Amino acid sequence: MECYFLAPLRVKLAQPFSTAYSSSAYLQRRGSCVRWRSGSGGAAHCQKMFVPGFGEGSPEAKAARSLQDFFTFVAVKIVLAQLESYNPEAHAELTEFVDRNSLNDGDKFCRALMRESPRHKGLALRILEVRSAYTKRDFEWDNLEKLARKMVDESNTRLMREYVLETSHLDNED
Amino acid sequence: MECYFLAPLRVKLAQPFSTAYSSSAYLQRRGSCVRWRSGSGGAAHCQKMFVPGFGEGSPEAKAARSLQDFFTFVAVKIVLAQLESYNPEAHAELTEFVDRNSLNDGDKFCRALMRESPRHKGLALRILEVRSAYTKRDFEWDNLEKLARKMVDESNTRLMREYVLETSHLDNED
């Protein structure tokens, strides 16, 4: 069971399922559920589905961690585009560094860039600044939510339609 | 330049930077910017940073696509946890299928699961249902935004502090 979205999870998922989904872990997580709603009878109860296997974290924290790497990637692209017109030399230096270093881990990339040379350090600081500004100001969070909901609905419909078409085709042949 | 967050981007980034960041692409993207704000002088202008290289899509669409795969991954974990207590046989079947098939591409995984056997088809439909409900109801979007902003700020501070500590240590030695 692997998912490239969250590389560190691969290690966690190597544990046996019996451990990952033990009833004690289930109860523990249920106990830490923070969203409570009033039922029709007035009793409060948690309506969230139990998501096991995230340890001390949460799905939201794991997603935020991956988004952070994505924002570093976006910041590098923004800075490259900005440099291209007014500082071709710095653009070439950053391009060359990007070709040599993976952006899978954004922090690791910035850490290496800062230590490459004083000029690269300036570029790294610019990338940190841009990813912070992009996260806070430019990234359209509402749009992300809307698009994700729409994509999931469309994918569900498409997958079921494909399956029905495929099986009805087989039925016709029989 | 690679980023595991968005696997399809690897192909796109293989093109030369001169093409990816050409001024015509720049102007094209600027023209499609949808967020306009009134300036102090009353003139409207786009204050968003230009993000090149996403073609017809947007960073939000790419992030939503990756989140969709993540939600499939979460849905599989939820269904496994639900099955464990009341249907150990189905739990074992799904576990075995998950071990054999990657969850990197959520739709591909569900497509294969639907075609494995009639029993697996039932499991696949359950996973589709759960990922839709999770996306709409359980996933805390506000929390995601808050955590991502906080993580970026904390990472920026940590990276700069590390660098300063490291270089001040070198200065002391000199």
TrEMBL record, chains A, B:
SUPFAM superfamilies referenced in this protein's UniProt entry, alphabetically: RbcX-like
Keywords: Carbon dioxide fixation, Chaperone, Photosynthesis
Any one GO molecular function term: protein folding chaperone
GO biological process, one term: photosynthesis
One Pfam family linked to the record: RbcX
Alphabetized InterPro entries for the sequence: Chaperonin_RbcX_sf, Chaperonin_RcbX
Keyword Lipid metabolism part of the UniProt annotation: no
TM regions (residue ranges): none
Domain of life: Eukaryota
Protein name per Swiss-Prot or TrEMBL: Chaperonin-like RBCX protein 1, chloroplastic
Organism: Iris pallida
